[in-house]
Specification:
This is Ribosomal protein S1. It comes from Brevundimonas faecalis. Helix content is 71%, strand content 0%. With 79 residues, the chain is mainly α.
Length: 79
């Protein structure tokens, strides 16, 4: 014997029927917090801000950055 049951309900109705908690407010809060943090970090990723930071340390920081880029290029060319 084969029995098929088809239930037509929304996800909220299914959660309520199964006794699962409604985590919509928690999810909304987490998404808002993630957006706020991403917006705050986007300012640090702007090229002009990065250059200001790097050049504020002087020639030593520029030399370290050049060596970092050289190491990345040589490391990427190795199989």
């Amino acid at each position: 014997m084969k029995l098929n049951i088809e239930i037509d309900c929304t996800p909220a109705e299914a959660r309520a029927f199964l006794g699962l908690p409604d985590v919509t407010p928690l999810n909304d809060h987490l998404v808002a917090e993630m957006q706020k943090r991403m917006d705050a970090n986007m300012a640090a990723m702007q090229p002009d801000e990065l250059m200001k930071t790097w050049t504020s340390f002087g020639v030593q920081a520029q030399d370290q950055f050049r060596r970092l880029m050289e190491a990345a290029v040589t490391g990427a060319s190795k199989p």
